[in-house]
Design the sequence.
């Protein structure tokens, strides 16, 4: 099986949830499953 290399930009931001205040880097996440969930504080009204 051939491994594909994925290129991604470094994660920038502040105060990532559930990190214990530690900085998050791609190197530190290598080999782990990561779920990113983005939300906003605005409300969408349909109809």
Sequence:
């Amino acid at each position: 099986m051939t491994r594909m290399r994925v290129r991604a930009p470094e994660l920038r931001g502040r105060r990532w949830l559930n990190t214990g205040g530690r900085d998050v880097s791609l190197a530190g996440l290598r080999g782990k499953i990561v779920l990113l969930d983005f939300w906003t504080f605005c409300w969408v009204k349909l109809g």
In short: Helices lie at 26-29. Residues 8 and 25 are 11 Å apart (CA to CA). The radius of gyration is 16 Å.
